[in-house]
């Protein structure tokens, strides 16, 4: 009885130990494999991400401007030739978070991603993500778990059975015999099942191999890749069928001889392939070279020839194998990118970037060899008038024709580029002498001087040229350009249509204007030093300030207050006036709305408009955006346009723009009336609300009856057309009284107030008659009239 009760207890103990050992055995295998597999994959992903980031950083360091757009090259840097079949995906992300390139696929449900920073010159310009699949790792973990489970069952059986073997023999002899028979039957069945499974596995492997082979062939077709091999000493080269298809050659006609294949390469392609294979023999590394080759249809294509050494059992090189890939599309894209980067899309000439590279090469060559070159800087005389009057389309056509004329005059011996706008540069190479330089400059001037026929009509232009000698007149690009600018400025001052060489004593005034132009552009770009002054406009009948004219002012940290008569012409000549015009429009609208929001009386704000804004910008769109951004009611914005906009050939464009403004509800004023065309036709045809009479009509009206009659007639003309009359440049009370008698509506001038900052202008507007006996008039001492060269000068 005691023995019988101890047997179950002993069995329970053995069973407990066996179960514990089996559980440990079942868990140890998959957990260990999971840790090792995860660590290996993490290390691989981190290494690939860091390696790719290092490769990209080296490339970006040399191509910092265009690297984001050279995706083919970036993709090549991500690929490891020694690891072509492992799955993985690269993603390049710039430092703004924008995806630049995604290379490769990860066909898996579970992936691991590691990130490395792309550091160029100690600055992070982006990141590289490398992702690898974890499905295989999980699969092997499952298989390991299955194997561990089977092993644990075996361990469990062993630990459970051995201690009780004697007992089991005594108690289960018959059962063991029966079990043995059953086990043998099960083994036989398992063997039969295993044989059937192996047959199925073989069939599946054959199908998979065939499928992979078909995929490889299809991939080669898609990637335009074919493979080849060559044994040293043989007369023939083995080409895969895809090679003949890739190069569109008939195998029966071309054959496979090495001589026939070498003949396919054009230029020095065959030599470069042989040099590449010599490099393979020397280093043992895979080498690739890009060459051009003839296709069967006679066309020339770009191909990448990759060579790898084939070795025997002793490690001796016995031949080569490799691939040829058609990279014509990539080369075409690279050439397109180069054209975009280095050539002007309008004229097809070299652009400023290529000019900089060329001039630096010429400087280096002249310095090293002692030879002499020359730089000719030119721009077109009267180009601005053509552009303003006929529009930018005509200006573009003119630039293309001028580029063609200059190119024809230069031939192929010299370098011509368009630096921007109507500015061109010519580099004369080949140790030219002064007489040759002068002859060529004179020929260029003669070639593009006179009338040129455009689709828009016939125009008359000319050119002026500034010349510097290299390296005499400068050892750097900036020095040469600055001195060429000075020589060009001198040529224009001396009458245009001529050339001048740079001299060390060039006018300091010319240098100052060039510096002013550069500083003005910096002021606009950085929004520093620019301000707006406001000159009140007083209604004669009530004495109230009904509006202000916004006038640009510029204070430079070195030059101090720069007069508008100095900087406005510079802005006009460089098209910077468009940026200035938009800036003052926004500032004036913001100030007018701020006054309204502060509870002040709503007053009109007048802003001058340049012809360049009409022709070279979407000015209507700009005005709409400013009104929307500031919330200023459209009827409180007055746009002042000068008569120079209204030449006959420009009237159609101006009419369209003014009509759009009237739809917006903006007030329109014809500024400086009487100084330019003064055509009465457009007064009735164009939708002006105001007529601003130029200050030339006010001069002498106190003492001259003739001047008074003329001014009275102009005012009567404007009032008869239903226009509000604004008189500019009024400087003394006597003139005010005469204008009152002529029923002039609004007066603007020093008799009331000079242009002042916003706070002072508002103080005057609140109480314009504080210092005067007569309502609404401030009596001040008469001041000398100031010649206003432009409406922006106030």
Task: Explain what this protein looks like in three dimensions.
- This protein is of the alpha/beta class and 794 residues long.
- The chain folds into four domains: 136 residues, Beta-Lactamase (2-Layer Sandwich), CATH 3.30.450; 111 residues, PAS domain (Beta-Lactamase, 2-Layer Sandwich); 164 residues, 2-Layer Sandwich (Alpha-Beta Plaits), CATH 3.30.70; 264 residues, Alpha-Beta Barrel (TIM Barrel).
- An eight-stranded mixed beta barrel has the order 16-17-19-20-21-22-23-24, surrounded by five helices. Strands 10, 11, 12, 13, 14 and 15 form a six-stranded mixed beta sheet that branches. A five-stranded antiparallel beta sheet has the order 6-5-9-8-7, sandwiched between helices.
- It starts with a helix and ends in a 28-residue tail after the last helix.
- The C terminus is likely disordered.
**In this structure, how is the largest beta sheet organized?**
8 strands, mixed, barrel
Task: Find the CATH topology of the largest domain.
Answer: TIM Barrel
Helix content: 40-55%
Q: List low-pLDDT spans.
A: 771-794
CATH class of the largest domain: Alpha Beta
Mean pLDDT: 82
The tally of structural domains comes to 4
Q: How much beta, percentage-wise?
A: 15-25%
Can you summarize this structure?
50% of the residues lie in helices and 21% in strands.
What features would you highlight for this structure?
794 residues, alpha/beta, Beta-Lactamase, Alpha-Beta Plaits, 4 domains, eight-stranded mixed beta barrel, six-stranded mixed sheet, 24 helices, 24 strands, elongated
């Amino acid at each position: 009885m005691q023995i019988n009760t101890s047997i179950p207890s002993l069995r329970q103990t053995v069973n407990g130990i066996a179960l514990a050992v089996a559980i440990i055995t079942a868990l140890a295998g998959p957990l260990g494999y999971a840790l090792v597999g995860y660590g290996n994959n993490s290390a691989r992903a981190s290494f690939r991400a860091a390696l790719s980031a290092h490769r990209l950083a080296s490339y970006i360091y040399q191509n910092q401007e265009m690297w984001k757009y050279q995706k083919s090259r970036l993709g090549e840097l991500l690929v490891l030739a020694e690891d072509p079949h492992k799955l993985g995906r690269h993603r390049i992300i710039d430092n703004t978070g924008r995806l630049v390139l995604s290379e490769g696929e990860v066909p898996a449900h579970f992936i691991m991603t590691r990130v490395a920073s792309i550091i160029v010159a100690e600055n992070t310009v982006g990141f590289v993500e490398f992702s690898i699949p974890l499905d295989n790792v999980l699969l092997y973990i499952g298989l390991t778990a299955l194997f561990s489970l089977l092993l644990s069952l075996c361990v469990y059986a062993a630990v459970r059975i051995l201690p009780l073997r004697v007992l089991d023999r005594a108690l289960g002899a018959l059962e063991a015999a029966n079990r043995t028979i059953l086990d043998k039957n099960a083994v036989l069945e398992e063997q039969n099942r295993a044989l059937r499974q192996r047959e199925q596995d073989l069939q599946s492997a054959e199908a998979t191999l065939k499928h992979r082979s078909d995929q490889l062939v299809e991939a080669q077709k898609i990637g335009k890749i074919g493979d080849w091999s060559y044994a040293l000493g043989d007369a023939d080269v083995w080409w895969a069928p895809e090679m003949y298809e890739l190069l569109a050659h008939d195998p029966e006609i071309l054959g496979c001889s090495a001589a026939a294949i070498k003949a396919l390469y054009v230029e020095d392609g065959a030599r470069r392939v042989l040099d590449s294979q010599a490099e393979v023999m020397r280093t043992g590394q895979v080498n690739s070279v890009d060459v051009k080759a003839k296709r069967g249809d006679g066309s020339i294509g770009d191909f990448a020839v990759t060579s790898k050494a084939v070795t025997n059992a002793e490690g001796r090189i016995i031949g080569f194998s490799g691939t040829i890939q058609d990279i014509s599309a990539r080369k075409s894209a690279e050439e397109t990118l180069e054209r975009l980067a280095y050539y002007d899309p309008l004229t097809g000439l070299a652009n400023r970037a290529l000019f900089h590279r060329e001039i630096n090469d010429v400087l280096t060559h002249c310095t090293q060899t002692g030879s002499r070159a020359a730089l000719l800087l030119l721009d077109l005389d009267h180009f601005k008038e053509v552009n303003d009057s006929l529009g930018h389309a005509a200006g573009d056509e003119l630039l293309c024709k001028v580029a063609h004329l200059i190119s024809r005059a230069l031939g192929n011996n010299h370098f011509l580029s368009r630096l921007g706008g109507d500015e061109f540069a010519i580099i004369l190479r080949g140790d030219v002498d002064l007489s040759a330089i002068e002859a060529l400059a004179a020929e260029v001037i003669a070639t593009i001087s006179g009338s040129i026929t455009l689709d828009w009509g016939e125009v008359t232009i000319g050119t002026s040229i500034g010349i510097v000698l290299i390296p005499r007149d400068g050892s750097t690009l900036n020095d040469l350009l600055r001195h060429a600018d000075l020589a060009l400025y001198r040529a224009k001052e001396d009458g245009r249509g001529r050339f001048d060489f740079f001299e060390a004593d060039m006018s300091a005034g010319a240098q100052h204007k060039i510096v002013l132009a550069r500083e003005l552009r910096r002021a606009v770009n950085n929004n520093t030093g620019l301000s707006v002054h406001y000159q009140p406009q007083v209604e004669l009948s009530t004495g109230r300030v009904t509006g202000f004219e916004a006038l640009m002012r510029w204070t430079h940290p070195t030059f101090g207050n720069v007069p508008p008569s100095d900087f406005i012409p510079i802005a006009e000549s460089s098209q910077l006036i468009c940026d200035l015009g938009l800036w003052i429009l926004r500032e004036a609208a913001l100030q007018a709305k701020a006054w309204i929001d502060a509870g002040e009386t709503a007053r009109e704000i007048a802003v001058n408009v340049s012809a360049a804004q009409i022709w070279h910008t979407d000015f209507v769109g700009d005005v709409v955006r400013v009104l929307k951004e500031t919330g200023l009611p459209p009827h409180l914005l007055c746009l002042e346009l000068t008569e120079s906009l209204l030449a006959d050939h420009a009237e159609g464009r101006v009419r369209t723009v003014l009509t759009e403004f009237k739809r917006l509800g903006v007030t329109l004023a014809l500024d400086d009336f009487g100084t330019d065309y003064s055509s009465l036709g457009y007064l009735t045809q164009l939708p002006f609300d105001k007529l601003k009479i130029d200050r030339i009509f006010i001069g002498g009206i106190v003492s001259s009856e003739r001047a008074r009659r003329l001014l009275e007639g102009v005012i009567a003309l404007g009032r008869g057309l239903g226009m509000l009359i604004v008189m500019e440049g009024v400087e003394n009370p006597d003139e005010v009284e005469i204008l009152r008698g002529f029923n002039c509506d609004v007066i603007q001038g020093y008799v009331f107030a000079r242009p002042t900052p916003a706070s002072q202008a508002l103080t005057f507007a609140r109480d314009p008659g504080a210092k005067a006996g007569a309502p609404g008039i401030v009596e001040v001492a008469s001041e000398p009239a100031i010649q206003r060269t432009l409406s922006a000068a106030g």
